Amino acid sequence: MCVHEDRGPRTQQVSNAIPSLNGLCERGRITWAEREHGWVGMPEEILAALAMDGFHECAGQRSTSVAGDRPASGTWRGVNPRMRSMVAADWMSRPAAAAATLFIEIDSQSITGPARL
Length: 117
Fold this sequence. Notes:
Blueprint: H1 9-15, H2 21-26, E1 31-33, E2 38-41, H3 43-52, E3 56-64, E4 71-80, E5 85-93, E6 100-106, E7 109-110
Antiparallel strand pairs: 1-2, 2-6, 3-4, 4-5, 5-6, 6-7
């Protein structure tokens, strides 16, 4: 499933700094982890990419790690009024890694591999 849509020239300029979800995949910033059945990446980058794709946060919850420097787990719910779509992203930190495993659904359909992104 592709979440990219044309949002005009101004957005295209901004998207060079903040890629879409597809852009994160193309740049290797997120990867599919078959064993975990989820996406591996930085939650902050993925949430920013979802926002770039037109999703506005409507609910979210984050718990911090023991060190308190980054979210250890969390949920994020967003809505894209233009596409009339909803997104759900849930994540948990991976042991001894900066990245987290994220589970992403759009309109209740799991994004389960690169071909669907």
